[in-house]
Amino acid sequence: MALSKIFTGSFYAKNAAIFFLVFYFFFGIVPGNMLLSYHLTLIRGFTGNVDFLCLVLLGWAVYNAKCVLFILKTLSARESLYLYATLGVLEGREKWSTWFRIHFSLYLPALTYSAAAVCIAWNDKHIGAVVTIVLFQLLMLILPLFVYDRKIKNPGTTSLFIRWQQKLNRLFTKPLWAYYIYELLNNGSRSLFITKGVTGLIIIATYSLMEQPYELRFMLVGLLLVLLAHTVLVFNHRQFDDLKLSMSIQLPLPLWKRYAHTLLGYFVLLLPEFIFLVVRTYQVAGPLDQLLFISLSVSMLVMWRMLLYFPGLDQDKYFRWVLISIVVALFMILGYLYWYLVIGLQVLAFTIFSLRYYKYEPPLAEVQ
């Protein structure tokens, strides 16, 4: 009972807002009379599609990692030192059953939905999906137990992720353009993974809903939704630069190279989407279309970033300009003006950057 309060109660209390948002997305936005058909369609969608299933498994793996990291963080807290005397004396079956109950209670939401998916997939004769989900969830339940056991036996050791991170820091010097990517991977992983999960679903839905033959404009409209999902990451980029890289303006770098760093940074940020798009469309989209996907995506995000060099542009005004640019881009795409849109975005972005970069002053609220 005490362990349940320490781990399970604290976990759900700390993440109550996230669980509420997920619950609202899966149950709150759907009318009651359509709830069953909505979830049946969703489950049949990923049990009958390999790409969609891989994305769902990735989401479950991320949630499982969140559970594991929470337990490890709880064990590492100074006020939790007494747990080593409590859990460290357990042996054999009692030890493993205790860790299993703790981890099971945290991972239960994913297991509940996957159990429903297994039943529906079995009924639809999708045996491959059934076997994949069952084996995957067994791994998600068993592997963390050895992590917890190792932590109890070696309380002073550094986690594998931290050791890998420290080794990379010793081996590689991060270039300027990679600092924000590194920040997202370390301290913004939740928002990054949520964004990538949403964009993966958008790409799958766009390609699946597209009627044959292949229509470039339809794919570009879906790509605009993918870019729209990145707006928060772009907005937070300004705050990161203001707080962590304010002295970079003193570096002896020409303006064009600073702009090129921004282009490269957003290209790397969007690299998972580009790879996924190539996998989904390589049979129907030629090299020029693939180049258009990359050019338009990077140009749009860079232009949104440059807007943030204007003083007094708060979050509400920023999103207002983002929506205006989306509407303009939509009309140009429908008018087949793809490359004119890319050129226009680049010219506008570089013009703003050249005029505002050295004049920009961070808001006092961000630097204090």
Automatic annotation (TrEMBL):
<feature type="transmembrane region" description="Helical">
    <location>
        <begin position="50"/>
        <end position="72"/>
    </location>
</feature>
<feature type="transmembrane region" description="Helical">
    <location>
        <begin position="291"/>
        <end position="311"/>
    </location>
</feature>
<keyword id="KW-0472">Membrane</keyword>
<feature type="transmembrane region" description="Helical">
    <location>
        <begin position="12"/>
        <end position="30"/>
    </location>
</feature>
<feature type="transmembrane region" description="Helical">
    <location>
        <begin position="192"/>
        <end position="210"/>
    </location>
</feature>
<keyword id="KW-0812">Transmembrane</keyword>
<keyword id="KW-1133">Transmembrane helix</keyword>
<feature type="transmembrane region" description="Helical">
    <location>
        <begin position="129"/>
        <end position="148"/>
    </location>
</feature>
<protein>
    <submittedName>
        <fullName>Uncharacterized protein</fullName>
    </submittedName>
</protein>
<feature type="transmembrane region" description="Helical">
    <location>
        <begin position="216"/>
        <end position="237"/>
    </location>
</feature>
<feature type="transmembrane region" description="Helical">
    <location>
        <begin position="104"/>
        <end position="123"/>
    </location>
</feature>
<feature type="transmembrane region" description="Helical">
    <location>
        <begin position="258"/>
        <end position="279"/>
    </location>
</feature>
